[in-house]
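Structure tokens please, single chain.
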Amino acid sequence: MGRAAPQYLHCYSSSQAADEIETSSLVLAAAIYLAPSLSVSKSPSLEILPAMLLLLLLLQVSASCLWLGHSEVVTSFESSCPQFFFREIPPNEALEPESPAWICQRYKNQYYFATLYDRNRRIPVYSAYLYQPGPGTRPKTWLVEPQLIGPTYPKTMERERTILNNFNISLEQLSKSQAILQDYKNLTGLNRGHLNPSGHHPDSSSRTATFTLTNIVPQDEKLNGGAWNNYEQQTMIRRTQGCNTTYVVVGAVPGNNYIAKGRVNKPSHLWSSACCEVDTNHRKAWAVIAENDKNEVQLLTLGELEDVLTQLYRRGQVSLFDSDCPRE
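Here you go.
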């Protein structure tokens, strides 16, 4: 009788470290299990064939463990990347589209922010992050999310050409799952507008992570370079004075118009909200909203923004942060 096969031939999905530990276990299991079978070289019979086939299977599983790891498109933010939300509570279901994707935005094996993505309209509903501005240059490389194609694709954002060249994916397949670079070419009066801006992050990797097209909407170019930019770069600095931790949720309200021959929705409004922890007993909040065809930003309380979004989305009362964040 041969010995029982190892019982731990599966992939963890909790972290990169778990992947590496599990892969080491697979290699060790293969060595222990197959050593007696592979030592029968004096008798080149068919008995060695099952052992060789099992070794090939183990190698395939091992490669899968290294590739898949923790799924980037997740089932919920609460269980996968809750750290980007105040009290680890994301906005409520009133913002969810018909075909949502919850993305823990991963770059170089680290999560940098969270995005609720609308698969049908090919724009983000919102992105949530911690406000940690720092000096640095603006990235130039745009990335896409492989796991929007399917769960067997890489767990980290990649360049378009990397996906097309390395994973036997056509541009048509990629474009069915999300917006692509071609969608944002030859725009008139619009450009690529970040929900989570690169300037709100402290280092090269965290800024590069914001350059995924799942964090981008078609934005009025005057608004993007004018009043909205002033809010991101000036108002946020003033408002966060005295804050220890500032949680930000920035979103886009779907509109009636599209770019790229009806592929990508042009939002009617952009909005931003922040909840700042001054200390354990004191918090403050603020919000803004802008129509996506005017170079104007309206400053609101958090409660006022939630009421406006409730009217715009018409899916029930909107709640962007835990109730401990002040609405007035």
